[in-house]
Amino acid sequence: MEESTRILYLDKRYLEMRQNLETDNLRLWLQSLKWNDVQRIRIDHVLADYYVSHSRDGYTIFWQIDDEGNLRDGMMKLYLLDGSVCGLDSIHDRLINAGMIDIKKQNISPCFFGQHLLTKYPKANINIVERPVDAIMMSIYWGMTEQEVFLASATGGNDNLLYGLEKSPFK
Questions:
Q1: How far apart, in Å, are the Cα atoms of 56 and each of 7, 22, 47, 59?
Q2: CB-side exposure of 76: number of CA atoms within 13 Å?
Q3: pLDDT digits 0-9 by tens, 78-132
Q4: N or C: which end of the chain has fewer CB within 10 A?
Q5: CA neighbours closer than 13 Å in the CB half-sphere of residue 152
Q6: Computed from CA positions of residues 112, 146, 52, 105, in that sequence, does the dihedral angle turn out positive or negative?
Q7: Phi and psi at residue 60, to the nearest 5°
């Protein structure tokens, strides 16, 4: 692949710098919903499996990690306590604005949110949804274990659906 079209992979140290989700508005909103006891226990496990994290400025980060473990991007949403979104951003936009990425030499190539879980749950039935929060809620509701073989993955928007499916590992 030519240098000018090299796919951008972010340093995995960003995953290690994750902030505590205890005060994250998305997590607090999820906990406020009516779940049964088993589903309520799943909330933190599902957020951890999907590598959902919290930024210093209050955004929930939905990391896009491909099935080979490469960190592609982080979609960022600022949630209110009622579950509504009042702000959007992305890790790659922040890095570009900070001058840490030269977009002329690297190609941002998104992947499905939750795509990394294909290696953890290779026999899972896969449900493709639009928003990461939908994938999280479905996984909390239905469960994510080898026995339950259910996995939800999100396109991150309708624009990514066709692009994502043509290059998708979901066969």
A1: 27, 13, 17, 7
A2: 17
A3: 999 999 999 999 888 888 888 887 766 667 788 899 999 988 888 788 888 889 9
A4: C
A5: 20
A6: negative
A7: -85, 130
